[in-house]
TrEMBL record:
Residues 26-165, 192-255 form the Exoribonuclease phosphorolytic domain. It comes from Hippolais icterina. The keyword Transmembrane does not apply. This is Exosome complex component RRP43. Pfam families: RNase_PH (PF01138), RNase_PH_C (PF03725). InterPro entries: ExoRNase_PH_dom1, ExoRNase_PH_dom2, ExoRNase_PH_dom2_sf, Exosome_comp_Rrp42_subfam, PNPase/RNase_PH_dom_sf, Ribosomal_Su5_D2-typ_SF, Rrp43.
Length: 275
């Protein structure tokens, strides 16, 4: 495994399995915790922790008030940020965000935009005067591959947990008034879920790759779908090309995975709802 890692992997792949015992199309155990049980970010307006095997990601959403941009007077803002601190894996260094963290932040921003999970007009309180800004901080606590799937999952779960207070603008003073006793859940229009694959030897596809598998792969691809089976995004940062048939296989598997993740989120949220 140390001297010839690729050959070691190929021996398993020939038998249609992987060194960790999974089949090629099998995901690692996935768990999600939602809400204030996360002591590290109790100040957030919404939070979630997702574990995908050993990969652990936490997402905190902070809502603040701001004036809308002049050219989008009736829209709020969503600002995602992915952090890969040096604590989560030896490969990352402390300091400003590295290339991988920046690429992940951009990917999350694209998913939010393309899926229309949150319509920015829904974040507007008073056109041209006041809107919500949602700061979505996604922090990797433990990195073992497939960061994008875990990040999208954590973001969706945290946003489902957000309750925004009622805000009105006083006609006489022109100042905003916040009613913390009256809160409404954030309007989530779509539920995007990411499914990542690693490509081995240009032809073989394995789902939910570990960090080791990502390093050995000749390419990766991430498919994002919503609950209607609509394709929201295909993220393929270089590497081996995919045939149309292989891509269709990935999309079909991603639609199945979406149902599994949505079911898991719904189950956890239902358990949090007061009886």
């Amino acid at each position: 495994r140390t001297v010839e890692p690729l050959e070691y992997y190929r021996r398993f792949l020939k038998e249609n399995c992987r060194p960790d015992g999974r089949e090629l199309g099998e995901f690692r155990t996935t768990t999600v915790n939602i809400g204030k049980c996360l002591c590290s970010i109790t100040t957030a307006d919404g939070s979630a922790l997702v574990k995908l095997g050993n990969t652990t990601v936490i997402c905190g959403v902070k809502a603040e008030l701001a004036a809308p941009a002049v050219d989008s007077a009736n829209k709020g803002y969503i600002v995602p940020n992915v952090e890969l601190p040096s604590l989560c894996a030896e490969r990352f260094r402390s300091g400003p965000p590295g290339e991988e963290a920046q690429a992940a932040s951009q990917f999350i921003a694209d998913v939010i935009e393309n899926s229309q999970m949150i319509v920015k007009e829904d974040l507007c309180i008073a056109s041209g005067k006041l809107a919500w800004v949602l700061y979505c901080d996604i922090i990797c606590l433990d990195y073992d591959g497939n960061l994008l799937d875990a990040s999208v999952f954590a973001l969706l779960a945290a946003l489902k947990n957000v309750q925004l207070p009622l805000v009105t603008i006083n006609e006489e003073t022109g100042l905003s008034e916040v009613n913390l006793k009256q809160k409404n859940p954030l309007i989530i229009r779509k539920h995007p879920v990411a499914t990542s694959f690693a490509i081995f030897d240009d032809t073989l596809l394995i789902v939910d790759p570990t960090a080791e598998e990502e390093d050995l792969a000749t390419g990766t691809v991430t498919i994002v779908t919503d609950e209607e089976g609509r394709l929201c995004s295909v993220h393929k940062p270089g590497g081996s090309p995919l045939t149309g048939a292989k891509l269709q296989d990935c999309i079909t598997r991603a639609i199945t995975r979406h149902k599994e993740v949505k079911k898991l989120i719904d189950k956890v949220i239902k358990s949090l709802t007061p009886k």
